[in-house]
Structure formats: structure tokens, C-alpha cells
Design goal:
Shape: elongated
Organism: Balaeniceps rex (Shoebill)
Protein name: COMD2 protein
Strand order of the largest sheet: 1-2-3
Structural class: alpha+beta
Order of helices and strands: HHHEEEHH
Number of domains: 2
InterPro entries: COMM (IPR017920), Commd2 (IPR037354)
Strand content: 15-25%
Helix content: 55-70%
Largest sheet: 3 strands, antiparallel
Number of helices: 5
Length: about 150
Amino acid sequence: KLNVGVDTIQHGVEGLTYLLTESSKLMISEIDFQDSIHVLGFSDELNKLLLQLYLDNRKEIRSILSELAPKLPSYHSLEWRLDVQLASRSLRQQIKPAVTLKLHLNENEDRTAQVLQTDPSTLLHLIQQLEQALGEMKTNHCRRIVRNMK
């Protein structure tokens, strides 16, 4: 009926979907949205229709996107124990430490537990990596990304 190829219609729908989802994710203002679509070279009437479509549906799009986000387990509590093997039958003087962690998680209203065991040097490396990741979260670049994700 439109005398247009299937690929053109598919690309148009995908482009419109991308425009609306990204604009809704970022909760951009009316002026920013108008500036974004003005570059595309559409007529003023079509720009007004797209703006109205965005304003009418952005809350619903955000709610759908939040439902599609993966539900990750969250931290509840941690139990730990330090075991040290001081000697064995073959080696009378050895020190073999091991740290055992029991991580309790909340996952969809259910509590699960994961038991992990490691040596102290690996645990120290893990702590350093986590501290480095937390330090990177304080940079302006990461703060901007996190702010845009909300």
C-alpha cells in the first residue's frame, strides 16, 4: 500500500523504536528531543507528531524497560572462617591457610547461599580489584554513565 520496500519500513520502525527508547532512558526534555529530531530533516508537522508520541509514551516505555532489566541477586549477609593446616603426616611443619566464605543472597524473595573457598593471597587480590572498581566509580565519566542509566 505504501509502495515502499519491506527493508525501508523495517529500518524506519527500528529507528523510531531506538529514538523513543533511548530518549525515554535518558528522560530528555522536550527541547532536547526537538533538537535531536530536527537534525533528521523531517517536516515541522512530523516533528510535532514525534514529540507528542514521545511525551505520551515515555513513562510507559520506561516502565517496560525497567521490567525487562535483569533481576540480579542482592547481598544479604556474609559468614567467614579461617582454616589453617599446621602439619600433616608427611610434612610436620607447614602452614596452609584457607578462607571459607558463605555468601547469603536475596534472589526474587528467596534466600540462597554460595560457599567459596580461597587462599589469603587471592582474597587480597580480589579486595584490591574491588577497591579499584569502587575508585573508578568515583570518576566523572562513570558518574555521568550511571546518571544516564537511571
